[in-house]
Write a structure and sequence with these properties.
mainly alpha, three-stranded mixed beta sheet, transmembrane helix, Zn_peptidase_2, Zn-dependent protease, peptidase activity, membrane
Length: 225
């Protein structure tokens, strides 16, 4: 019973805590202007150009914290506040997304691996619970096993995402400092924004691993019986 409660806490509370941390940190540093008074779009363009990525474009996208890099179209997309904003948060997030563009240009191994996993991870995410629930209802452990295998690919995707995101943040810090976009007193603020954003990926990975362990254990225990 205690173990199940811990599992539920991990499943529900950890993601909520991570999301709250991101939102609060972003809100705080979106109100702190960067010393060079450059927008997120300008930050992204400078870092891209400094790295010879003139072909990568920058677009504004809808939604809050919907920022991302599209490797297929070679586009860095920034949410409205970060595209137009002069804040420390806007600079940090823009630089992070450009970090993904640099990874793409350099064929960063973990990024390539994650891209290769996308189709099977997406299928695993959709199909795993269908097989697991069907297996439980029909008392067919073979179906549960198929579901666990599907789930393992989705979990692997989450785990591979971690080094991709941390590396992008490290690249972002290096680029922001070397380009002079941020100064000594701004490095701490930038790190806080990047670290808070990374928590969402860590939380997602923890939840995914916990779910995989739970259902894999269910399958093993059923087989022992």
């Amino acid at each position: 019973m205690i173990g199940y409660l811990v599992y539920l806490a991990l499943l529900i509370l950890v993601p909520l805590w991570a999301q709250s941390k991101v939102k609060n940190t972003y809100k705080k540093y979106s109100q702190v202007m960067n010393s060079n008074m450059v927008t997120g779009a300008q930050v992204a363009r400078k870092i891209l150009d400094d790295n010879g990525l003139y072909h990568v474009s920058i677009e504004e996208t809808k939604g809050m914290l919907s920022d991302h890099y599209d490797p297929r179209k070679k586009v860095v997309r920034l949410s409205r506040d970060n595209y137009h904003g002069y804040s420390a948060a806007a600079a940090a997030i823009a630089a992070h997304e450009v970090g993904h563009a640099i990874q793409d240009a350099e064929s960063y191994a973990f990024l390539r691996f994650r891209h290769a996993l996308v189709p099977i991870a997406g299928l695993g995410d959709k199909m795993s619970f269908i097989f697991i629930i069907a297996g439980i209802l029909l008392n067919a452990m073979n179906l549960v096993l198929i579901g666990v295998i599907f789930m393992s690919f989705a979990v692997l995707f989450q785990l591979v995402t971690l080094p991709v995101e941390f590396d992008a943040s490290n690249r972002a810090m290096g680029q922001l400092v070397s380009s002079g976009i941020i100064r000594n007193n701004e490095e701490r603020q930038t790190k806080k924004v990047l670290n808070a954003a990374a928590l969402t990926y860590v939380a997602a990975a923890l939840v995914a691993v916990a779910e995989l362990i739970r259902f894999a254990s269910m399958f093993l225990l059923a087989n022992d019986d």
